[in-house]
């Protein structure tokens, strides 16, 4: 059976009681659901759902199957360490963090839900992020072989004035840069894409941030 989740993408379920006589109906229903997504949310959202093959949430708290949204203890943040996930309604979760003081703050998302794992995003066009922020921040793409240190490729995550927005961020190399204060990367952006361990969100100003959705084109994280 196919349903549409809160982000407008397709969720796939399988049941032990499903019999072959229902498969034809399931295919028709899937096609109908995809047409409904296109009509309600536009062809881009539906295409992203097909390309990513994204399923529904994990058994433990997650946002679009991403389970590890973590405060690193670097910079003064609330929470200071541990998971950022808080329940948002009956079924969903939101990642919330506050940056305090004029200092660098660091929060981490493990893209494959385990620190030891990584994702090859070489063929991905980019990602959709649903978030709010009261000031600008950055997201770094950190590869497994060059995890530590601030000298990473990054792109600006602009302030939303505290409003929730959904924005696309391209993986085109010219959309990513580095900050002299944090150091020039000693690796190429292409290599970072090929062995992506995590997104690391950093900012140097006071900020109130929420994350409510993340879809990477062509990639679905495994639940752990």
Number of domains: 2
Query: Total number of helical segments?
Result: 3
Largest sheet: 6 strands, antiparallel
Q: How would you describe the oligomerization state of the chains in this entry? A: single chain
User: β content, as a range?
Assistant: 25-35%
- Classification by helices and strands: alpha+beta
Distance between the termini: 23 Å
Overview of this protein structure:
The relative contact order is 0.20. With 224 residues, this protein is an alpha+beta fold. Helix 1 packs across helix 2. The protein has two domains: 2-52, no CATH class; 69-216, Jelly Rolls (Sandwich), CATH 2.60.120. It has three helices and 14 strands. The protein is 16% helix and 35% strand. The strands form three sheets. Strands 5-3-8-13-10-11 form a six-stranded antiparallel beta sheet.
């Amino acid at each position: 059976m196919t349903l549409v989740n809160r982000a407008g993408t397709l969720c796939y379920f399988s049941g032990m009681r499903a019999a072959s006589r229902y498969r034809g109906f399931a295919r028709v229903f899937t096609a109908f659901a995809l047409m409904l997504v296109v009509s309600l949310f536009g062809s881009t959202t539906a295409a992203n759902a097909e390309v990513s093959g994204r399923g529904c949430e994990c058994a433990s708290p997650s946002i679009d199957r991403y389970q590890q949204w973590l405060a690193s203890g670097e910079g003064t943040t609330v929470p200071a360490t541990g998971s950022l996930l808080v329940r948002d309604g009956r079924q969903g979760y939101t990642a919330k963090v506050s940056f305090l003081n004029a200092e660098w703050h660091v929060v981490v998302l493990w893209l494959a839900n385990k620190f030891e794992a990584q994702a090859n995003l070489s063929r991905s066009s980019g990602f959709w992020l649903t978030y709010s922020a009261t000031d600008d921040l950055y997201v770094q793409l950190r590869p497994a072989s060059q995890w530590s240190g601030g000298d990473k490729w990054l792109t600006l995550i602009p302030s939303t004035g505290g409003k929730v927005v959904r924005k696309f961020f391209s993986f085109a190399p010219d959309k990513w840069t580095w900050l002299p204060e944090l150091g020039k990367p000693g690796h190429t952006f292409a290599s970072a894409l090929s062995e992506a361990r995590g997104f690391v969100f950093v900012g140097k100003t006071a900020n109130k941030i929420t994350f409510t959705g993340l879809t990477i084109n062509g990639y679905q994280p495994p639940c752990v």
